Amino acid sequence: MIKYFSVKNFSSIKEESILAFDSNLENNSSYPAHPVIGFMGANASGKTTILNAITFTLWFMQTSFFAIKEDEDIPIEPFCTTKDEPTSFDIIFVTNSGAEYEYELSVTTQKVIAEKLYKFDTQINEFVLVYQREDKAITINFPMQQIQSNDLRNNASIISYAAQFESQSIAKEAKNYKFFSNVRYSGYQDIKYTPRILAKFLEDEETYLRAKELLKIADIGIEDFETKEKEAEEVSEILEKILQDKELAKNFSPNELKKIAKAQKENNLSIIEKAVFKHKIDSQLVDFGDEKESLGTLRFTVVMYLILRSLKEGSLLIFDEIEMQLQQDIVAHLISLYQNPFENPNKAQLLFTSHNSSLLTVLLPEQFWMSEKNDEGHTSLFSAADFEDIEDIHKKDMEKLYRFGRLGAKPRLL
């Protein structure tokens, strides 16, 4: 779970923006931070930007040593008038084991300027510095074996580098913090439905039963689902299409694409299955292939898969435009799963953006964050709990306040 995040000089965010996701948390809370954080605001106000900033920070910390080539730039975009200044990030997150870390990063597109990782020591009740980097100078301030840093590049994090070594247990735990995001450097990226999603549900009986239950709650007429092997000729056509279509190939990992190419070459045509949704029609279960399903059903299947996986793993899910093609009550129900300790015993967390103000009915003021651009083109971020002039805001109708413009973060001329 993320407790705190700050960012400066990133895309449309010029001045430092601070987001406290543990603000006003009840003392007896089951979680170290709020399990759900929602962002709303006008188009192009910076909602996706903040999700992108969080995604970049975790991605860079964990994988930059392997993901960025030696001659490549660090994929950030500073604010347009301060491109020569460093971009700064600061994130506090809690792993599944309960370990709490703070990661600070200052970078340009060319190199890491400074980088620190702290671990919270429960005995002294404060953060202790573990890894420190100032330009090329590296220090490990912890009772761990020192490592050679000759191979550490200017465009990669020390955490992603150190995690290769067996002796670096703290770097390994920070690297293994689980998260998934549907935003990339270019912004929102749609997650396409594939039959493999239903196959994933079927691998675990508990997840399968939970998925069936959610499909019924969604009231889209699906009673059950399964996967079946496709005919050899059909599979051959699909394999060829995947290998030739770059957009379609993006849904598969490099390892999966290698298996597909090998299967096609060796004429092994049993690796792809088709999904079958079973609808109740005239008191009978009728098989509908996924090609006959509506876009809304397939979209719901994707969102349901990501959320159930997040809840099972206790991982962070970052989801831009969560309500796309989904009915608002369905989205509200999926979001509410994170708020329930019985549904979310592993402390999973959801960060999402939306344009649907009705979702505010499931959020507290401190869980509702807004993005707004001023006349200078700067994005500012604030939570509904920041409005101290609104008396008893926790008792107010948040949706009504937002829709009537009392909280800002709306097109100013409407």
How would you explain this protein's 3D organization?
The chain is α+β, with helices and mostly antiparallel strands and 414 residues long. The chain folds into two domains: 2-178 and 316-403, 3-Layer(aba) Sandwich (Rossmann fold), CATH 3.40.50; 196-300, no CATH class. 29% of the residues lie in helices and 26% in strands. The protein has eleven helices and 18 strands. The chain has a seven-stranded antiparallel β-sheet, covered by helices on one side. A six-stranded mixed β-sheet has the order 9-15-16-3-17-18, sandwiched between helices. Strands 12-13-14 form a three-stranded antiparallel β-sheet. A hairpin with a 5-residue loop joins β4 and β5 (100-107). The chain is globular and about 70 Å long. It starts with a strand and ends in an 11-residue tail after the last helix. Mean pLDDT is 84; it is low at 410-414.
How would you sum up the global shape? Answer: globular
Q: How do the helices and strands follow one another from N- to C-terminus?
A: EEEHEEEEEHHEEEHHEHHHEEHEHEEEH
Number of DSSP helices? Answer: 11
Indicate the radius of gyration in whole angstroms.
Answer: 23 Å
Beta-strand residue fraction: 25-35%
Q: Can you tell me the CATH architecture of the largest domain?
A: 3-Layer(aba) Sandwich
Keywords:
414 residues, alpha+beta, Rossmann fold, 2 domains, seven-stranded antiparallel sheet, six-stranded mixed sheet, disordered C terminus
